[in-house]
Write a structure and sequence with these properties.
Elements lengths: L2 E8 L7 H14 L5 E3 L12 H4 L6 H13 L2 E10 L2 E9 L5 E5 L9 H4 L8 E4 L2 E7 L6 H4 L7 E6 L6 H15 L2 E6 L1 E3 L5 E3 L3 E3 L5 E4 L6 E8 H10 L14
Parallel strand pairs: 1-2, 2-3, 7-8, 8-9
Antiparallel strand pairs: 1-14, 3-4, 4-5, 6-7, 9-12, 10-11, 12-13
Length: about 260
């Protein structure tokens, strides 16, 4: 059985300024040591922007270089997303940075057409589950939350992480969907959403949370406040609940056609 201490950093994001955002997150993480995993919002270094040519980086850029150093010093993994350029294409990429320097990536599958994301970015086609310190973790980015087939647990993950830039006008849906994903998949769900106003005048009020496999909140950030929420999650709780309520055994079989 494994336990994981997780910290979710609900913050504002300085618009399209990677250097200043990196300084801010570096300070927060190093002043709040002791976690195994720190979760930051979607596009933590720029805000949710379609300004890909100015904000995109490659694997050797300042953001992944700095996150790797923070991860090494803190001894913890860091989960977030950023704009990465690969073979001439641009992706919104979930990055899971490990203390040993390894970086695991997931390219966002469901691009938010209403916000112009699909016009600027290429979509991913690989569902990524990665094991870290005894936990099998499914990586998801914001809009992915609305698509339960993509999130469906086929007994391959214990924890879903969703990093988000989810505006206040649709916040109620965010809250409901997070709990639904936890309940239907009998898994922990961690969500990190930002606060503040971005360069497109969209407003965010948070809702960052840690939810257990029954859909109950373990930790919930206050609205409109920069805050760190913490919890210890435990695979034994998952295993015991799945034994007592084995709903995953009755799931429908399906194949995702990419």
């Amino acid at each position: 059985m494994s336990k994981l201490k997780v910290s979710v950093l609900q913050t504002d994001i300085i618009w399209e300024n990677a250097e200043e955002n990196l300084k801010n997150y570096n300070k927060i993480i190093l002043q709040n040591p002791g976690s195994d995993l720190y979760v930051l919002p979607e596009m933590f270094n720029s805000g949710f922007t379609n300004n890909i040519h100015d904000c995109a980086e490659d694997e050797n850029g300042i953001s992944l270089t700095m996150l790797s150093e923070i991860s090494r010093i803190s001894g913890a993994a860091i989960a977030t997303s950023m704009i990465l350029k690969e073979n001439g294409l641009f992706y919104n990429v979930f990055t899971f940075v490990k203390p040993d320097g390894r970086i695991v990536k997931y390219k966002k599958r469901h691009l938010f057409k209403l916000g112009g994301e699909a016009e600027m970015f290429s979509k991913g086609d690989e569902r990524v589950v990665f094991e870290f310190r005894g936990f099998k973790i499914l990586f998801q980015i914001c809009y992915d939350l609305r698509f339960p087939v993509w999130n469906r647990n086929v007994e391959d993950y214990d924890l879903m992480i969703n990093v988000a830039s989810w505006p206040v006008e649709r916040r109620k849906m965010f809250d409901i969907l997070l709990r639904a994903r936890a309940i239907e998949n009998l898994a922990y769900v961690i969500a990190c959403n930002r606060i503040g106003k971005d360069g497109n005048n969209l407003i965010y009020n948070g809702g960052s949370c840690i939810i257990d496999p029954k859909g109950e909140e373990i930790a919930l950030a206050k609205d409109n406040q920069e805050e760190i929420i913490n919890a210890i999650i435990d695979t034994e709780i998952i295993n015991e609940y799945r034994k007592s309520f084995p709903a995953l055994n009755d799931r429908d079989e399906f194949t995702i056609i990419v």
